[in-house]
Amino acid sequence: MSPSARVRLLVIAVLAAVEAPLVFTAAVKAGDLFSLCKRNDPQLNECVKDSITALRATFKKGIPELRVPSLDPMVVPQISLNQGNGPVSITSSFKDLHIQGFSDVQINSVKVDLPNYRIDVDCHLPWFYTWGDYDIKGQILVLPISGNGPSWSNYTDVRGRAAITGRELVKKNKTYFGMEDMKFDVDVGHATIHMDNLFNGNKVLGDTMNQFMSDNWRAVYSELKPVINEAVSTLLRDVAKKIFDKFPLEELFPK
Ligand SMILES: *[C@@H]1O[C@H](CO)[C@@H](O)[C@H](O)[C@H]1NC(C)=O
Ligand SMILES: *[C@@H]1O[C@H](CO)[C@@H](O)[C@H](O)[C@H]1NC(C)=O
């Protein structure tokens, strides 16, 4: 069975709680917020890559005009993961999961296919750091694990791949990128994962488990990866949707 088939993932992203205050938006133009690219530009991919790269400075403060919250740190209010009853069975949840480091993103490549409503972005991050309260119960490899409390992780040499798909959407005679999905897949070169207060605060067992997770970070990360992917996808999907819902394609990608 594929990992995704045995993973049941639930994200409750109460994004309203972390949204930036609304600034009066009626007249905001796409060109005020982004450097725009002409749709027939033979270098369209390069142009969009530069445009996203230039946006990194706004990741920390968000885009209040579009109610886009800060992306650095990003905050996922609640996320939980239930993996089936096989040899690996784990139930975990995180509250107020903060993800820091996204504003150092390097965009490697962008592929814009407007006729087919598809955009692919390949990027690299030197590191991202997460913290939040965890609750976990189950088994990692051969060891039982249980506990709840604060946790942090640092992931280095991170590669992210985003795929945005959509379809034509016409509103008031204007064509929009009707976003259907955005998937974000995160691979890491190394992960350091730490959980405080494992096993009801039993220090010996907790230290042993944290050491075990450091020594076996690849296996641990593969268990947590669906949480990270879904957390980041949920937030970036929301940002992309706010942009595509607000501005028609003729404004985002002028002729
Ligand atoms: C994460 O690890 C990288 C590489 O070791 C380091 O440069 C960075 O400062 C760490 N981040 C945090 C928040 O500790
Ligand atoms: C849409 O375009 C058609 C034909 O150009 C026009 O007759 C109609 O009034 C337009 N509708 C709106 C809502 O602008």
Automatic annotation (TrEMBL):
Name used for this protein in its record: Protein takeout
Give the organism the record lists: Frankliniella fusca
| Keyword tags | Biological rhythms, Signal
Q: Where is the signal peptide?
A: 1-25
PANTHER family assigned: PROTEIN TAKEOUT-LIKE PROTEIN, RE70318P
- On whether Glycosyltransferase is a keyword of this UniProt record, the answer is no
**Family to which the UniProt record says this protein belongs:** Belongs to the TO family.
The keyword Signal appears for this protein: yes
Top-level taxon in the UniProt lineage = Eukaryota
Its Gene Ontology cellular component terms are: extracellular space
Q: Which GO terms describe its biological process?
A: circadian rhythm
